[in-house]
Design goal:
This protein is of the alpha+beta class. 19% of the residues lie in helices and 36% in strands. About 9% of the residues have low confidence.
């Protein structure tokens, strides 16, 4: 499938700020499952753009706007060819559990077996596991177990934007039974890693299709997970939509959790509050993409309450909240 993505991020400051420094993870990955055809990045005000690959192989772009400005607009446009949905077997043999415990797998996938950031084992998660009798799934083979877990998380939580923020711990979604794709991905990652199955967070986009039962927001970025099974390698699972990650999913970045892969992150100098608008459109390449509507996001909150911005301070944009993946 040929897909085009337009991702626009726009800041408006109540008064001019002196400088902005930003880091972006918006370029789709090059992998067996998808071919990157083109990627363009436009900035206003204009700035020189640099790039590097991070520890997980994600393309990272960064730039500095050193002059005063009261608006900052970032537009990323991508064209990607994705492969047909993978056909998975009904299951794998029980020996897969032994292969998962091998020194090779544990060494190669070390980062994706450990608790990290939002992916932690809490008492609320233990309660959820007990209530749903999830550990009994380990009597099945690993593939059957993670497919069943994908279904259970889908059934257990309502998809409700605005209940959680990007910096919310998993206990919030577990407590209210609601959240967005980021929350469901973190919960599933924690359980898979507890079972000894390497699992990583995937940030990207979804070509939403209501006929397939998708419940995620078509005008936002998306998140799902990938688990490593020695027989099958990395398998993508989308607990938000109870699906296998396939040709409608566009992977942008992988990491241990969301904190490794925010679409944009930066700092600015100046005494000014900011407003942020984010717009995402994903469509088939031969169809014209509709002009995306901006999603107005709340201002960031700081530990201990709202922090007054003082002249000369450098303020970290709380992108984990502002560009929360839906």
């Amino acid at each position: 499938m040929l897909l085009e993505v337009r991702h626009v991020t726009q800041y408006h400051y109540e008064r001019a700020v002196r400088e902005s420094v930003m880091e972006l993870r918006m370029q789709p990955r090059k992998s067996v499952g998808q071919r990157l055809i083109s990627f363009e990045l436009d900035l206003e005000p204009r700035a020189q753009i640099f790039s590097y690959a991070d520890n997980f192989g994600n393309a990272v772009y960064h730039f500095d706007v050193p002059q005063p400005h009261d608006n900052l607009r970032i537009e990323a446009r991508s064209a990607v060819e994705t492969q047909p949905d993978p056909v998975l077997p009904d299951g794998v043999d029980q020996g897969e559990w032994d292969r998962l415990r091998s020194d090779f797998v544990r060494g190669e996938c070390f980062d994706f077996l450990q608790p990290h950031g939002f992916v932690v084992f809490t008492q609320a998660l233990q309660t959820f596991i007990a209530e749903k009798n999830l550990d009994a799934l380990r009597l099945q083979d690993p593939l059957s177990a993670v497919l069943a877990l994908n279904q259970i998380i889908y059934d257990a939580f309502d998809y409700t934007p605005g209940v959680t923020t990007a910096d919310s711990p998993i206990d919030l979604a577990l407590g209210v039974g609601r959240g967005v794709c980021q929350d469901f991905a973190h919960i599933m990652l924690a359980i898979c890693r507890r079972w000894g199955i390497p699992a990583r967070y995937v940030s990207g986009y979804l070509f939403t299709d209501r006929q397939h039962g998708d419940r995620s927001d078509p005008d936002a970025t998306h998140a799902w997970i990938e688990v490593f099974l020695p027989t099958l390698r990395w398998v993508g699972l989308d607990p938000t939509n109870n699906s296998i990650a396939g040709e409608r999913h566009i992977a942008v970045a992988i990491g241990r959790d969301y904190a490794d892969v925010p679409p944009s992150l930066g700092v600015y100098k100046g005494e000014a509050d900011s407003q942020l608008g984010v717009a995402v459109s994903v469509g088939k390449a031969r169809a014209a993409l509709a002009e995306p509507e901006f999603l107005r996001l709340p201002r960031p909150s700081f530990p201990g309450g709202r922090r007054k911005l003082n002249a000369g301070d450098i303020h970290r944009r709380e992108q984990q909240q502002q560009q929360q993946q839906q």
